[in-house]
Amino acid sequence: ERTGKATARLHEHYWSPKVMIHRDMAVVWAPYSFDVDGKRSHCGIDVFDLIRIDGEWKVANAMWTVEPQGCKKQ
Predict the structure, then answer these.
(1) CA distance 55 to 21
(2) DSSP state string for 62-74
């Protein structure tokens, strides 16, 4: 309910993703930054584990770090 009423502009940016695939499993590892109303909130690393089922990739797991300081401008 709270998220649906939010008015803040949120922007997440990824760069230099690393993708590893072996048969029907894959991992995506990517640095990211997250801005709220144009101001850097935090940055970190996102990791997604994927599995291919019936020819379609599905997200099996997601994890991330949240680093509020030391974020590089991208």
Answers:
(1) 14
(2) EEE--B-S-PPP-
The answer to whether 44 and 68 are in contact (CB under 8 A) is no
Q: Kindly state the average pLDDT of the residues 34-52.
A: 96
Q: What is the pTM of this model?
A: 0.81
C-alpha to C-alpha distances, 71 to 8, 13, 38, 41, 74, nearest whole angstrom: 21, 12, 14, 9, 9
Q: Is the dihedral of CA 4, 65, 16, 29 positive or negative?
A: negative
CA distances from 11 to 2, 32, 40, 63 (A): 18, 10, 9, 18
Is pLDDT at 2 greater than 90 in this prediction?
no
Q: Which tokens hold the place of 62?
A: 């997601």
What is the token pair recorded at 39? 């101001």
